[in-house]
Amino acid sequence: MPGEKELLISLLVKIAIIASMASLLLRWGFAKRMLLREQRTLRQRLQLGALFGLFFAAGSLIRLVLGYDAAELGLESAFVTGLVGGYVTGALAGGLVALPAMLISPHELLTLPLMVGVGALGGLLRDIAPGPEDVWRFSPLHPFTLSSWRMPMLRSPQGAFQMLLFFCCLAIEFIRSSLGHAFPSNNWLFVMNPPAATLNPATVVLVYFSTMLCVGLTLKIWNNTRNEWKLEEQQRLLIEARLASLTSQINPHFLFNTLNSVASLIRSDGDAARLLIFKLSTILRRLLRKQEALAPLRDELAFVDDYLSIEVVRFGDKLKIVKEVAANTTNALIPSMLLQPIVENSIKHGISPKVGGGTIWIRSAVQGSRLQLELEDDGVGIRPDTIPDVFRSGIGVSNVYERLEVLFGNEFDMVIEDRPGGGTRVRIQIPEMKDYSIEAAEEAALPSFATSAVQRG
Question: Does residue 57 contact residue 30 with C-beta atoms inside 8 Å?
Answer without folding.
Answer: no
